[in-house]
Amino acid sequence: MKLSDFDFDLPEALIATRPAVPRTSARLLVADGPVLHDRHVTDLTDWLRPGDRLVLNDTRVIPARLNGQRFRQSAQGPVQARIEATLLEPRGDGTWAALIKPLKKLKLGEKVVFTDDLSATLERIEDGQGHLRFNHVGDAFDAALNAAGAMPLPPYIAAKRPADERDLVDYQTVFARNSGAVAAPTASLHFDDALLARLADIGVNFTHVTLHVGAGTFLPVKVDNVADHKMHSEWGQVSATAAAEIAATKQAGGRVIPVGTTALRLIETAARGGTIEPWEGNTDIFITPGFSFKVTDALMTNFHLPKSTLMMLVAALMGQEAIKTLYAHAIQSKYRFFSYGDASLLIPQAQKPA
C-alpha cells in the first residue's frame, strides 16, 4: 500500500471551525454496505436497534495550551520572553511532556510563569519536547490548569482562529469523565443527553472505555510505503466490566459499534487474542486494509484528513473503493470535515458464510 492510495482533494471551505448547533443536528452519512444515505445524527435511532452496544470513549480533554512568560536577568537588566506550551502527556517522574515554542528561549532549570497560581520549571529536553515540572499536583494542578489553559484545538482549526470560551464546552463530550486527553474523541461530540436517552429507550446499550487521545493523532504520515509508518502510542483502559459487556453483546448476536476511531483502536487492542479481555496500557495498534476485526461490527466516525492513519482505518473496515466512493459523495454533498465536522455511520456489508 502506498500513501497516495489514501489521498483526496478537499476544498478548504469544507473544513469546519465550529460544530453544528445543537450537536445532534450535524449531518450523518450512513454507509449501509454499498448504499449511502444522507441523514442527521438525530436519526441514529432509525439505524441502531435493540441489543446494539455503542462503545464510548469517556476521556476528558484537558485545557492543555498555556501561554506564559520566562524572566531572566541579563547584562542590560531584566528581560522576558513569551513562551507557549502545549501539554502532551504526564510522565512517570511527575513531569509533563510538552511542545514548547520557542524552546530555544528556555534553559534547563528556568521557570515559566503562566498565571499567579501556575508555573513550571523545565527539567529536561528529549526528542524535541520539554519536560515541565509544575508547582502543583493532583486536584490543585487540575484547578490551576483549568483556570489558565485553553483547549488544544487541532492545527487545522487553530490556524484559522484561537480557542475561546465556547471551545471549553464544544470540544468536550457530554460523558467525559477521566482527564488526560489533549484531543477530543470527535465522533462523540455529536451526542447530547437527550439523544443518549432516546437510544437507551429503544434498547441500545452503552459501554464506557478510556483512551487518552494524544497529539500524535494529528501527525502526518511521511513515508510512501504505509508499512514503514511508526504509529504513535496512547494510554487506554478496557475495564473488566466493559470487556464483559462487549463479550455478552457479541454472544447474544448484537452489534458492537465503537463511537470514534479511538474507541475502535482500543477495543481491537484488547481483543488481539481473538476475544475481548480487560486491558490497560499503551497501544500503538495500526489498522490498515487487511486487518482482521475481532469485535467491531460498525463504526461511527467523523471525516478524516487525507493520507492519515485514520483514512487507512476506515478503509480497512469498509474497503478502499467503498471509502473512495463515500468520501467523493461527502465532498460533492458538502459535508463538513474533521474534528468539528459532520459524521458517518459505517456498516460493513455482511460477509456471507462460506
List keywords for this structure.
five-stranded mixed β-sheet, 354 residues, alpha+beta
Give an overview of the whole structure:
The protein has 354 residues and is α+β, with helices and mostly antiparallel strands. It is built from nine helices and 17 strands. The strands form four sheets. The protein has a six-stranded antiparallel barrel. A hairpin with a 2-residue loop joins strand 1 and strand 2 (35-40). Helix 8 (309-318) crosses helix 9 (320-332). The longest helix has 13 residues, at 240-252. The protein is globular, with a radius of gyration of 21 Å. The model has no long low-confidence stretch (mean pLDDT 94).
Helix-strand layout with pairing:
Elements: E1 27-32, E2 35-40, H1 44-47, E3 53-57, E4 59-61, E5 65-74, E6 77-90, E7 96-101, E8 111-113, E9 119-126, E10 129-134, H2 138-148, H3 155-158, H4 165-170, E11 178-181, H5 193-201, E12 205-211, E13 234-238, H6 240-252, E14 256-258, H7 261-270, E15 279-283, E16 299-302, H8 309-318, H9 320-332, E17 343-347
Parallel strand pairs: 1-17, 3-12, 3-14, 4-11
Antiparallel strand pairs: 1-2, 5-6, 5-8, 6-7, 7-10, 8-9, 9-10, 12-13, 13-15, 16-17
Helix pairs in contact: 8-9
Concise summary:
The chain is α+β, with helices and mostly antiparallel strands and 354 residues long.
Provide the structure class. alpha+beta
Helix content bin: 10-25%
Kindly, what is the distance between the CA atoms of the first and last residues, rounded to a whole number of angstroms?
27 Å
Number of helices: 9
Which stretches are poorly predicted, pLDDT < 50 over at least 5 residues? none
Radius of gyration: 21 Å
